[in-house]
Amino acid sequence: MTPMRDSVTPPCGQLTKSQCRLTLCVILNILLVNFLEILKMADSAFQTMYRQEFIAGFEKRQSLVRHTTVTETEVNGNEAVFLVADSGGATAVTRGKNGDIPTRPDNLNQFTVTLKEWHDVPERTNFNIFASQGNGRKIMQQTCMSVINRKIDNDIYTALSAATNTWGSAAVATLALIKKAKTKLGNAFATHDAPVFGVITPAFHGELMGFKEFASADYVNMKPFEGVGKDRAFSWYGINWIVDAGLPGTGTDSAVCYMYSQNAIGHACDMERIQTLVGYDEKNDKSWARCTAYMGTKLLQNSGVIKMPHAELALSQ
Fold first, then answer.
1. In angstroms, rounded to a whole number, what is the distance separating the alpha carbons of residues 17 and 169?
2. Which CATH number is 65-88+107-316 given?
3. First to last CA, the chain
4. CA-based nearest residue to 245, from 61, 27, 40
5. What is the band of 41 on the pLDDT scale with cuts at 50, 70, 90?
6. Which of 51, 146, 153, 200 is the most buried (most CB within 10 A)?
7. How much of the chain exceeds pLDDT 90, in percent?
8. Are 199 and 247 in contact (CB under 8 A)?
9. Which residues contact 133 (CB under 8 A, 6 or more apart)?
10. pTM (2 d.p.)
C-alpha cells in the first residue's frame, strides 16, 4: 500500500506545509517578543524637556497708585517738606474808614515726610542657578523690584488710612454711594485743581460693571497710564479709577477703598537713589539682586480723601 504524501519523511532541506507554518509562527513570536523589548527600552529612554523661559507667578508687580499722589523726587537729606497754601476761607473786604484796605496772611501749612530706607535682597548659590530651570538672575531681579513696588503702594495706603471722612459704614458699592463720596469731595472743593482718583478692589469693580451708566468708561488720559488696560485703570464719572487687589482687606467685608484728590496725599521718593543691582559674591559663590528705595508718604489734606468701606465677601467667595 502506498503511504500518503504528508506522512513521507521529506528529504534534508525540505519541510512539509504544516512544518512551514509552525516554523513561521515560531519566527513571528520571536520577532514580537523582540519588538516588545525594544518598546520597553524606548519607554525608559524618554527625555524630560524643561522650558527655559520662566512663567511669572501671580502677584502684584507694578505700582500705579504712586502716580495718584503729589510726588517729590528730588530729596536732600532724609526729609521732604510739602507746602499746602490757601486763603484760609477769607472773603473780600472793602476799604476801611481810615482809607486803608485791610490785609491778611495766607494760610500756609508745611507737612514733613521722613524718608525710610526699604530693601529686598533675594540670593541663590551659583550651583542652584546652574542646576535650576530658567534665568535665575533675571527672576531675582524682577521679584525684588516687585517687592519694592508693593511697598510703595502699601506706604501710600497707610497714609490714606489716616483720613477720617467716609461714605458711611461698610456696604456693597452702589451708584448712590459713589455719588455721595464724590459729592463730599466736591463740597470740600477737592475736585477742582487736581485729578480725582478712586482706588478700588476687584469686587468693587465688579459692582461697577453692573451699572448701565458704566458703559461709558474710558481709558485714563494721563501719561503714566499709557498702555495700561481698562481692566486695571479707567476713567468714569469724572474719576480716574485704579483696580488693585493689594488694598487692605481685599476679598472681605472689611475692605477699604478710597476716592481722593491728587493734592490730598504727598509721596516722597528719592528717584536718583533708587537702586536695582545684580551682583556676585566670589567668596561664597552666590549671586544676588538688590532693590533699594528711600521713601515716605503723608496725608496733606484730610478733606480731600473719602474712605469707601466695601463689603465684598459674598462676591469674593
1. 98
2. 3.90.1690
3. 98
4. 61
5. low
6. 200
7. 61
8. yes
9. 50, 51, 52, 54
10. 0.80
